[in-house]
Fold:
Amino acid sequence: MSISNTNDNESQKKHIAIIGSTGSIGVQALNVIRRHPDQYSVEVLTANTNAELLIAQAIEFQPNTVVIVDKDKYPQVQQALSEHDIKVFAGEKSLSDVMEMNSIDTVLTAVVGFAGLTPTLRAIEYGKTIALANKETMVVAGEIVTKLATQKNVPILPVDSEHSAIFQSIVGEWHNPIEKILLTASGGPFFGKDRNFLKTVTVDDALHHPNWSMGKKITIDSATLMNKGLEIIEAKWLFDVAPEQIEVVVHPQSIVHSLVQFRDGSVKAQLGLPNMELPIHYALSYPMRHADSTPRLSFADYPTLTFAQPDPDTFTCLALAYQAIEKGGNMPCIMNAANEIAVSAFLKGQISFLDIADTIAAAMAKNTFIAKPSLDDLLQTDKETRISTLNNIKTI
Structure:
């Protein structure tokens, strides 16, 4: 009988850095890691402003390093963790700098929005496997990200349930070209409603998603269908397909997470309950499937699965996303920045639900287009679009 010592066991684990550990995806990822301490150890945890939860997570998981982006919260985090062997840093630069740590194997980018781009690129530069839950990284800079990942031989493993489903459906099919991707959408809380109904919906209405428990920004994106628009662009870069090969299908039950059609006409799909811990675990464990205790799908509970076409005339964000990816260049960056500002304004009660799409369309029409943007161009585009969109909202 041979007995592995602690160091041997530790060396066999995957060492995980979570960018955005206090958000919805980050919390669920830690649930997965908590159930599998023999498979994973937490190396880095980061948060934007939620110091209290970051402290609690750090005390439980004992990472090497934590980063609080809000520098005003640094003293609180530093003091709380002073008795633990945990390094504490603050600021956006630190968020990227810690990605260079040799001890990190996989980086889970769980932060929402444009903020995920720079640390993700730094992680790729230093050869870390990317478990990608930050779709905006691919929306804003898909060409730059995929080119760098290819150069560094870094795998990008999708965490979004739809893209994980696509990835799982093409495993073992590398020699078979994709004919079409069928990207499923729940339809959000307003599926089947018309524009007259949407004129008066409230923030609470929009946050009441029928199937998924997500952060506020993603939930609003789901309600406008912009989330699906962002996923179209992400899928284009992740799976090297043309926009016209991606079809959105509304599937209110959220059981079929997406489908892939091959050139012989065969269609493969991945199914499961609407639970993000499954795709998170798959990205962390790939290419293995570790046993887990997540709830199982019973078809008796879902005797009817339905599918429908989206309504682009009512949910115009979907059309805006197709326009952005067809235009290319920095247009998806403009669209994304305007959407982040518009959603924030809606959540604050500054604009109406329908104003979100109108605000994005205005930004796409007015901001400077760059056909071949560099990373610096994209950073400047994001900054300028946010300023111009904020100014536009003041006139609404």
